[in-house]
Amino acid sequence: MFFIKRFIIWGLILGVSVTQILLYIPIFTCRSSGKNVLCSPIYKVQLIEDSKLTHDFIATLNELLRLLSYLTIDMGWDGEITTPTIYDNGYLDKAMKENNIFKVNYFGYCKFQDSKNDYCSRLTSSCLDLFGTIAKDMGVYLSRYTSNYKTNPDVIGSSLQQFYYLTLLSIYKFLKMDHKNDNNFLQILYGIHNVKVSDTIHVYSDSYKSAVITLYISMISNNVLKDLLLLEFTAVILLFLAISGFGALLFIWKKQTILPLIIMIISIISFMLSFFSFASTLTNILSLKRLERNEDIIENGWEMLQVTYGSGFIFACIRHSLQWVILILGIVVKKYYSVVPKPQPVIQNEIKEEEDK
């Protein structure tokens, strides 16, 4: 019975560790298309149909896609398209519509149109950044009608996404510099010389600067989030290996020196990584919800999205909750399974010498 007791805590932390690993499987879904698409998104997004900003946003994206299509044809990048009838093809106007639903995960997304799954694609850098995902989707959509890239649509998608990020970075640096110069460029651009209208430009400049900063922070934070998730998953795997090795040695020794310490250290590291990744995930969703329409709040002109939590977010909550359990069990393992150094016996003569001194 005493021999079995030493495996109770080990069996508990091993079971939690295995469950934790299985809960990481959903983060790698929403990456490939097929008949039976497996997708467990962090959030689902649909554009609001009766929003002026939504109509302007969709019209801008479709016009940009049409321009890219013209360049594809005029530069001869697709040899199969030789007639100008492609200019009037309706597919150019279907790239982005109000009924489009994006299911976004950490490393992939799926696009649904008319309640049907159109396709899924991998995300290498944008992670939960919605507008970076939309930029890639435009490239993926365009490549599906370009013969040279039909087999690998991620090529154009990744290129267009990179173009979006470089453009965003340039605009961010420009607005930052122009703000230091008292928005002189905007005043010259609009031909403004009177004070009242100039003050109005300051208001609009601050508003758009705030939007650009938000997009810029989303780009940077999601790039970091991708690395955090990979490090977190690696830490969980290492923790499982350490727990397995610790359990094997329990058959020989109950008290150990190195592995209990390693288990506690990895438990702390994985908890910290999980905390920051979960906080970043929650921040991404809450920032998108700021673009939702709220009947209790006066509209500010930026309402364009309808955001709902996905099943992947529920798995993320469970994973983070289990990290608390693993952290506590890791400390317990260090406390009850570590070798306690025995006190050295004190020689009587040394005590006597100490007393004489």
From TrEMBL:
<dbReference type="GO" id="GO:0070583">
    <property type="term" value="P:spore membrane bending pathway"/>
</dbReference>
<feature type="transmembrane region" description="Helical">
    <location>
        <begin position="7"/>
        <end position="27"/>
    </location>
</feature>
<keyword id="KW-0472">Membrane</keyword>
<protein>
    <recommendedName>
        <fullName>Spore membrane assembly protein 2</fullName>
    </recommendedName>
</protein>
<feature type="transmembrane region" description="Helical">
    <location>
        <begin position="228"/>
        <end position="251"/>
    </location>
</feature>
<feature type="transmembrane region" description="Helical">
    <location>
        <begin position="312"/>
        <end position="333"/>
    </location>
</feature>
<dbReference type="GO" id="GO:0005628">
    <property type="term" value="C:prospore membrane"/>
</dbReference>
<keyword id="KW-1133">Transmembrane helix</keyword>
<keyword id="KW-0812">Transmembrane</keyword>
<feature type="transmembrane region" description="Helical">
    <location>
        <begin position="258"/>
        <end position="279"/>
    </location>
</feature>
<dbReference type="GO" id="GO:0005737">
    <property type="term" value="C:cytoplasm"/>
</dbReference>
